[in-house]
Design goal:
The protein is an alpha+beta fold. It is 47% helix and 9% strand. It has 16 helices and ten strands. Strands 1-2-3-8-5 form a five-stranded mixed beta sheet.
Length: 429
């Protein structure tokens, strides 16, 4: 007779298996003051805030994403990896949480549930992720460079004779939009509406964020209807006609995730990498060590990732991790920026050049499936700019640059630069 084995102990319970905190909104993380992530101080210098967090907390920090919107921010690398690989205890479904959040909360448009892979677990997550992965895998990687070049040349030509430009609004924004439109088979007029709506959705102004979601939904639903009727070899058509039979709302949700990660993150990724190249002597042509675009991208993903605080989960029940009890149904965000710079895993002098152990693409079942597409797009766009314009420098001091508000991204509002004016014919060569 076989003696039945006891189940393995749950690492998140006490020895008695009894949760010592009530199943309510309060927890250990509520006992200390919360760090606000919506202030101008945080937006201007988030790394200073992360350092102050480390002075008072080990791996889990009480924060406010917006006034009266509490959350827990993970600043420990190992803890983040543990959470991101444990969807059973830390699912990404926000529906219970969002019942307690006002409809006009500025962070709600970014966080509320949709029938998309990133908001679900288990079989539902797989049903949504499979079409997205298939659509992304269908993108011709070899064609990305050509897509970028065809978008870059007209943009550079439009400002080359001026000797100045805003590389956020005149280059990164329209270039990424044009490339995504090509990948998604999206007409330019619809794509522009998508871009404006997506940008507004990230904004901390509640009215602007809410309207951005409405505009985004209208534009994408129009695109889906177009591809239902006239499919092509593109991401939208693959989603709309995948064997998993997603309905229009489900296609919209996957497509919005693709555009959200593609448009907002890629243009910010590009701008942050350009800022590093402009301001770090290691990347200057006259320095003793002239590093490459690839080196800049790797360093940005470590130190200044475009999605700085993201990958939100919501514990199903009060749960203890690293000696701290977290309440049920309250957001737990991963600070990708802080975790990448956790002193416990990054020793003094550790270089991020050529190091891809960062969490900028997340990890676990929700890891970004489009990272290769994004990396190649941004790398090609930066190379096109420098190959065709040459010497470029910031038109203002780095401390005069304005960062867009919001707790999730690390994004410049503009990047004014100057360079020697060029004739359009020189750019076309």
């Amino acid at each position: 007779m076989t003696t039945p084995q006891s189940p393995a102990p749950d690492p998140y319970t006490t020895a008695t298996g009894v949760c010592p905190v009530p199943h309510g909104p309060s927890s250990d993380v509520d006992s200390d003051p919360r760090f606000p992530m919506y202030t101008s101080e945080f937006v201007t210098d988030p790394h200073d805030t992360y350092n102050r967090m480390l002075q008072h907390h080990s791996t889990l920090v009480p924060v406010e994403l917006a006034p009266d919107v509490p959350a827990t921010l993970v600043i420990g690398y190992s803890t983040a990896v543990r959470i991101l690989n444990d969807p059973d205890h830390f699912p990404s479904d926000p529906r219970a949480w969002q019942k307690s959040i006002p409809a006009d909360s500025p962070v709600r448009p970014m966080m509320e549930w949709l029938p998309a892979a990133r908001y679900n677990t288990g079989a539902t997550h797989l049903r949504y992720r499979e079409p997205s992965v298939a659509a992304i895998d269908g993108i011709d990687q070899n064609a990305i460079v050509d897509m970028v070049e065809s978008a870059a040349i007209p943009l550079i030509t439009s400002f080359c004779e001026d000797g100045s430009a805003d590389l956020v609004m005149q280059y990164a924004f329209p270039l990424v939009l044009e490339v995504l439109n090509q990948m998604c088979g999206c007409p330019a007029d619809i794509g522009t509406r998508v871009a404006v709506g997506m940008a507004d959705r990230f904004d901390s102004d509640r009215v602007k964020a809410k309207q951005g979601m409405v505009d985004l939904r209208d534009a994408l639903m129009e695109l889906i209807a177009l591809k239902r009727e006239r499919p092509g070899n593109d991401v939208t058509s693959e989603l709309a006609h995948h064997p998993n039979n997603l309905d229009d709302i489900e296609v919209f949700a996957q497509l919005m995730s693709f555009y959200g990660a593609g448009f907002e993150a890629q243009r910010t990724f590009m701008a942050n990498a350009l800022l590093l190249i402009f301001t770090d002597p290691r990347f200057q042509p006259d320095s003793g060590r002239n590093l490459s675009t690839t080196d800049a991208l790797d360093e940005v993903l470590f130190n200044n990732p475009p999605m700085a605080n993201f990958c939100t989960t919501y514990p199903r029940q009060p749960i203890q991790i690293d000696g701290v009890w977290l309440p049920a149904d309250q957001p737990v965000l991963i600070s990708l920026a802080a975790c990448n710079n956790d002193p416990r895993i990054r020793g003094e002098g550790t270089s991020s050049i050529g190091n891809r152990s960062h969490l900028a693409w997340s990890t676990g079942p929700h890891a970004c499936p489009a990272k290769d597409v994004a990396y190649r797009t941004v790398e090609s766009a930066i190379d096109q700019l420098f190959d065709r314009v040459g010497e470029i420098r910031l038109a203002v001091r780095p401390d005069q640059l304005v960062w867009r508000p919001g707790p999730f991204h690390r994004a410049l509002a503009e990047m004014p630069v100057v360079f020697t004016p060029l004739r359009a014919s020189q750019v076309m060569l």
